[in-house]
Design a protein that fits this description.
This protein is 44% helix and 18% strand. By secondary structure, the protein is α/β, with parallel strands linked by helices. It has a 5-stranded parallel sheet, sandwiched between helices. The radius of gyration is 28 Å and the shape is elongated.
């Protein structure tokens, strides 16, 4: 089933109909985590919404190839190419090697994703596995005149572009050095918006991970990673690039600059950005207040699916304020939803005209700039609909292939409860039969056997006692 899909495109600043470069196929890229610490739930909001987007596109019939990087080198503490490498900072904090830190937090990230039912991308590529590709790309940028060497570092020359700010629409005067305390002036730069493609030992002698390059021993800048990894796995044309709104500038702006300079043509048609998760005190971060992780929510008694539903009830482009009061409300709503889903009987025919109608209705809701709250509304409409239980279960399962709220667990839970009730009933009858036989009331014992058989339960006397099974 193909449905019209409209998404807000950060590049054009408007909602557009999504049309991929190649009919029926989608090349999709997600900026992955810098694996120096646990992901907080603000980070994971972006991954949840990107996951829904991918699953929705698959639901409508697209063949999606999604690629994600793992940043295990090159991301400095300031996005302005200053400060310490975040990976090195994590290694110092925990007195471990950088690669030990990377392995541990990469695994932790994917464990969180699994808890939140976030599908693992088709390709996951660590930056440290692509050093040769980064060097090759930088060499081409130097040959084309888009890069220069200064102070033994290699920089991208933003003055060579017609519109460096095409994605962010920022003004140059807003980027004066010194406006933010965490930005230091780099005197090697020809222009204040230039960014580093390759750092050398001249600036970072304490860097643990370093490689030989034509410009000296060093390591790649953060921005070159995503461009090179995406081109390696998706080719020179990408349909959708995803990330949080804080990636728009400078990271994604720099990705466009270097990728299109390298390729010589437009690189990515659609840019999908998820807004911040805030607390009442402001944007959530690892350095402020309580460090909110999926594990912490679990320790407080919350099912990770409650946080996923919390995110789905809000539009991805709107800031979302987190509070435990809000999460408690969603927890109650989720439990009611599970009970309503559990009450859907498995009866009747699965093929029903209303299934296709709801399939289309759900696709239209989600295709309206990934309106997950409307998608949930369609799910509730199905639960109220008069249709065979089997058909209702079928469309609920299809919708949940996109929403991924674990709704099938409601039926598993119901079956478990039924089994427990049945087991208690059978054991009670076996006890009654044993008492009847002890009193030599064999007629009553036979009646109990027949009662159980009528319910599809067979009992058998063995040396170890009575055992039972279903027919």
């Amino acid at each position: 089933m193909k449905a019209k899909t409209c998404l807000y495109n950060t590049l054009s600043k408007k909602v557009e109909e999504f049309v991929p470069n190649e009919p029926g196929k989608v090349a999709m890229y997600t900026c992955g985590p810098t694996v120096y610490h646990f992901a907080h739930i603000g980070n994971l909001r972006s991954y949840i919404m990107e996951d829904v987007l991918e699953k929705y596109l698959r639901f409508t019939g697209y063949d999606v190839k999604r690629v994600m990087n793992i940043t295990d080198v090159g991301h400095l503490s300031s996005d302005g190419d200053t400060g310490e490498d975040k990976m090195l900072a994590g290694a110092k904090r925990e007195h471990k090697s950088v690669m030990d830190i990377a392995r541990f937090y990469t695994e932790a990230f994917f464990q969180d994703c699994e808890k939140l039912r976030i599908k693992r991308p088709d390709v996951v590529e660590p930056a440290t596995g692509c050093i040769g590709e980064f060097i090759d790309m930088i060499e081409v940028l130097l040959e084309k005149g888009y890069a220069y060497v200064a102070g033994d570092n290699v920089y991208f020359d933003t003055s060579k572009l017609k519109d460096y700010y095409v994605l962010s629409s920022q003004k140059e005067e807003e980027l004066q050095v010194g406006v933010r305390e965490d930005v230091e002036e780099d005197t090697n730069k020809r222009n204040k918006t230039d960014f580093v493609l390759w750092f050398t030992k001249s600036k970072f002698d304490n860097q643990e991970l370093k490689w030989d390059s034509p410009w000296g021993v060093g390591y790649p800048g953060w921005h070159i990673e995503c461009s090179s990894i995406s081109i390696k796995h998706l080719g020179g044309y990408m349909d959708i690039h995803c990330g949080g709104v804080d990636n728009i500038f400078p990271h994604h702006t720099n990705e466009i600059a270097q990728s299109e300079a390298y390729l010589g043509h437009k690189w990515c048609n659609y840019w999908f950005h998820v807004n911040h998760l805030n607390t009442r005190s402001g944007k959530m971060s690892k350095s402020k207040g309580e460090f909110l992780t999926v594990s912490l929510l679990e320790e407080k008694g919350y099912d990770p699916m409650v946080y996923r539903m919390f995110c789905l009830q809000s539009h991805y482009r709107k800031p979302l304020e987190f509070s435990y009061e809000g999460l408690d409300n969603v927890a109650a709503a989720y439990e009611k939803l599970m009970k309503r889903v559990a009450s859907v009987p498995e009866e009747g025919e699965a093929e029903d005209g209303k299934v296709e109608a709801y399939r289309i209705k759900f696709a239209e809701a989600m295709g309206n700039d990934l309106n997950t709250s409307m998608g949930l509304t369609v799910l509730y409409d199905v639960l109220k609909e008069d249709m065979p239980g089997a058909a209702k279960r079928k469309i609920i399962t299809e919708m949940d292939s996109v929403l991924s709220l674990g709704l099938e667990r409601a039926w598993e839970r119901e079956e478990t409860e039924v089994d427990e009730e049945l087991s208690a009933y059978v054991e009670q009858k076996i006890a009654e039969r044993a008492a009847a036989k002890k009193e030599k009331n064999f007629a009553r014992a036979d009646e109990i056997r027949d009662e159980l058989k009528a319910k599809g339960i067979l009992i058998k006397d063995t040396r170890e006692g009575v055992v039972w099974s279903r027919e």
